[in-house]
Write a structure and sequence with these properties.
The protein is mainly α and about 350 residues long. It has one domain: Glycosyltransferase (Alpha/alpha barrel). Helices cover about 55% and strands about 5% of the residues. The protein contains 14 helices and ten strands. The longest helix is centred in the middle third of the chain and has 21 residues. The protein starts with 6 loop residues before the first helix and ends in a 12-residue tail after the last helix.
Length: about 350
């Protein structure tokens, strides 16, 4: 179904326009904005870069990772948001400056993913210091009970609460960082990250009291539902049971996955990540069916809207995020084996 670059498979899924869009929105310094003249954040930036890697847009992807290396602070973190209207420190103007652990650490997933796509060991070695510092920052915020606090303020003070979805993402980042360390022969670092990952996984699976302690529960969000499966915290029967338990709340037949269970709004990115989660537990036919629903939510060019408000029957918001396009390409890869990184999420 695909040539060496994977382009034929992406064309079969009508995804080339989405990838072209991501590359057009990317700034000259490598940062991938959410949309033209919009903000950006490090997590979504990496997700978009992963789509570029799958599509064989190697130079653009590597420019994206060089941006992370250049923007990274001495403590290994990045600001939570960036964009065209930046203050003197590079943070997106108007946002409360903070450094979020899962956003800073996700570069580990992207770097390992790019290596799996390209086999470029020189790239892996060049980005190793960035990955090492990013995960060191995240691990420095790990509580004795295993969860990793979600953010740090500009003075270095941690906000001592944790997010299920954010910690699941960190679980995947630590796994990918450990894989990079293993590939490059950094055994002691690998073992340290695997230990942190094990403690984090135990907290996610067995200590719900350690999450959402100081804010309203995030359980109404679809990401809280499927991220422990997507990121490998839950596998096998427990993962299948978790997905099945949430289908009635979140899946809207023929439309996609709701972003939150109490709003009539399906979003393409969450739907794509649900597709990957279903593929990870062996429900590939169901995953493919849901994925094919999503192509009704593109514009005339073939670029995905954020989502669809099905009571008002409108695309909302009227934005076409690059990270949504990246998620769509990742889902196609999980279903079709476009790249060498196709099983990164489906074979944890």
């Amino acid at each position: 179904m695909s040539d060496a670059s994977g382009r034929q498979s992406l064309s079969a899924w009508s995804l080339e326009p989405a990838i072209d869009y991501v590359e057009r929105v990317q700034r000259s310094d490598g940062l991938i904005l959410w949309y033209p003249d919009g903000p950006a954040d490090p997590w979504d930036h990496v997700e978009s870069a992963m789509g570029l890697s799958i599509a064989g847009r190697r130079e653009a992807a590597e420019r994206a990772y060089r941006w992370v290396a250049d923007a990274q602070h001495d403590d290994g973190a990045l600001w939570a948001t960036y964009g065209e209207s930046e203050d003197g420190d590079g943070a997106h103007a108007g946002d409360e400056p903070r450094k979020e652990t899962h956003r800073s650490a996700y570069v580990a997933v992207g770097v390992w993913h790019h290596y799996l796509c390209t086999g470029d060991r020189a790239f892996l070695e060049a980005l190793w210091p960035t990955v090492c510092d990013a995960l060191a920052f995240a691990c420095a915020q790990q509580a004795d009970s295993g969860e990793i606090y979600w953010s740090v303020d500009p003075s270095g003070e941690a906000y001592e609460d944790a997010l299920i979805a954010g910690c699941a993402s960190l679980y995947k980042s630590l796994a990918c960082g450990a894989a990079i360390a293993d590939e490059l022969g950094h055994v002691a670092v690998r073992d340290r990250w695997l230990e942190a990952r094990a403690d984090l996984g135990t907290a996610i699976r067995t200590r719900p009291d350690r999450f959402d302690r100081t804010w309203e529960s995030k359980s109404r969000y679809a990401m809280d539902w499927f991220y422990p499966v997507l990121c490998g915290v839950l596998t096998g029967e427990p993962a299948r049971d978790r997905l099945e338990a949430g289908m009635g709340r979140f899946l809207e037949d023929g439309l996609g996955c709701r972003c939150v269970d109490d709003e009539p709004w399906v979003t393409v990115a969450e739907s794509c990540e649900l597709v990957i989660s279903l593929a990870a537990v062996g429900h590939t036919e169901r995953a493919r069916e849901i994925y094919e629903w999503l192509f009704q939510w593109t514009d005339d060019e073939g670029v995905f809207w954020t989502g669809y408000q099905f009571e008002d029957e409108v695309f909302w918001p009227s934005e076409r995020p690059t990270w949504t396009c990246g998620a769509a390409v990742l889902a196609a890869d999980a279903l079709s084996g476009v790249s060498g990184a196709a099983d990164l999420f489906t074979n944890p």
